[in-house]
Amino acid sequence: MSDWRSRAARASRRPFARPTGQQPDPAPEHSMDPRAELLDDGVRLERSVVDAAVYRGGHRIAGADSLAEVYRQVPGEPGTMAWIGLYRPAEEQLLEAAERFGLHELAVEDAIVAHQRPKLERYGATLFVVLRAARYLDESEQVDFGEIHLFVGPQFVLTVRHSQSPDLSVVRRRLEADSELLALGPEAVLYAVLDAVVDGYAPVIAGLQHDIDEIETEVFSGDPKVSRRIYELSREVIEFQRSTRPLLQIMASLEAGFGKYGTDEELQRNLRDVADHATTAAERVDGFRQMLQNILTVNATLVSQAQNEEMKQLAEAGHAQNNEIKKISSWAAILFAPTLIGTVYGMNFAHMPELGWVFGYPFAIGLMALVCGGLYLVFKRRDWL
């Protein structure tokens, strides 16, 4: 056991990564329940122990609210089950529970480190299940993901949460109100937690659908910021897909063990219903990812078309400007010819051949007209004028 403790201690010191900008979750409100502070027998529970109780025949046993009392009564007579809920427990608490219930060291290490993918593993008579819950935050229009670890044994259930969601106090109240279902034992608790996690996906799917509808509108309105929003939403959908897709394998593994482990028929039907809902959620999420890929492609096409249109307008403007420059240059050349001739004959030299010539003036004028006319025709043929 010393090797196990040292290994778990090393694992607990690994960096606990948190998405950028995400603040630590506040303690859940239901952890402030009076049982989580001071019990009737004067035993004070740790803040990380949300609830701890022993159930027999689907009913909560009075006076079994302290951890010491829960540990003392398990294992008990047939039909007795302990359910302990921990919220970000200290390493020592989790190791103590592992010793009491004989949990496998690898599963305990995963529960200490957290940030595991959804999975189901069996260690002897104990199931270790990792689930990822999700909730949609309307204020920031973002999806917040939570993680829960379940150890399900023949006479106990240990739940370990590292995030505020899901609120398992609601699940506990639901089961305590249905003694027939709770009497089915730890598998009933596993079903109820699975059902709560999968039901929690529905508001997230609705929120993502609303975001995608908004993005489609922004894409066709030409909003320049839409590309960033598509990218951010795509990351959330991919993360959501990593939560829902492995859940199908978990449900398939549970269904495969119905006959071998003698699962109650009513519980089998309930678990199949959860599997159907999980499949629907996974398919919707897969569809969202494909939709976002298509939207990104359409947005890239629209951006490219807009850029091409701008380039076309710039080219047309440049062409028009070039035509104007050619016209100005042509007229400048035409006007330059008579200026040149006039300048030559305006020089004050005493001996110039044409100065004393009777036809000198008409000749100069004619030469100007001839040169100007020739240049005009040349530029006209080249469409410069």
Please outline what is shown here:
The protein is 57% helix and 14% strand.
Distance between the termini: 98 Å
Mean pLDDT rating: 80
Helical coverage, percent range: 55-70%
- What quaternary form is this? single chain
The total count of strands amounts to: 7
Alpha-beta classification: alpha+beta
Low-confidence stretches: 1-46
Number of helices: 11
Write down the Rg: 41 Å
Approximately how much beta-strand content do the residues carry?
A: 5-15%
The best one-word shape is: rod-shaped
Order of strands in the sheet with the most strands? 2-1-3-7-6-5-4
Keywords, separated by commas or semicolons:
385 residues, alpha+beta, seven-stranded mixed β-sheet, 7 strands
